[in-house]
Amino acid sequence: MGNETWTDEANRSLSPVLGLPTLAVLDWPDAHDDHIDEWFGLHWKTRALVERAAGRPFIWIDDEIGDGDREWVTEQHPGRALLHRVDPRVGLRPHDLDTVTEWLTSIGIR
Questions:
Q1: Degrees (nearest 5) of the Cα angle 69, 95, 110?
Q2: Beta carbons within 8 Å of 77's beta carbon, 6+ residues apart
Q3: Which among 109, 90, 88 has a CA at the least distance from the CA of 100?
């Protein structure tokens, strides 16, 4: 498991393209129990994201989002969430940004 994440880079690279202000990002905990999450079919980020969102809408863009994460978020998170998987072979593309923009518009943020 690597700890490679966008953190504030998303604000520098994506927010200006989408016309968004600087948004909150999650500082990942130093330790987490990968074995429990793996048993439930969850990515190591899933629980922390849902906890931080605290029922508020959130977007998670990642190349490792799986069906277990989607199911768990649907069951555990009362707010809206966009879990958008990008192709790790090509990275973030214009159509991915279009998806995010459409979702933000659908919830009245953009």
A1: 80
A2: 50, 53, 55
A3: 109
Structure tokens at 48: 């922390």
pTM of the entire structure?
A: 0.77
Q: Which pairing describes strands 81-85 and 58-62: parallel, antiparallel, or unpaired?
A: parallel
Measure CA 5 to chain center.
Answer: 10
Residue with tokens 């459409």: 102
Query: SS3 for 104?
Result: helix
Give the side-chain half-sphere CA count within 13 A for 44: 13
- CA-based radius of gyration for the chain: 14
Mean pLDDT by 10 residues, the chain (110 residues): 69 84 77 59 88 94 93 96 96 92 91
Name the token pair of 19: 């016309």
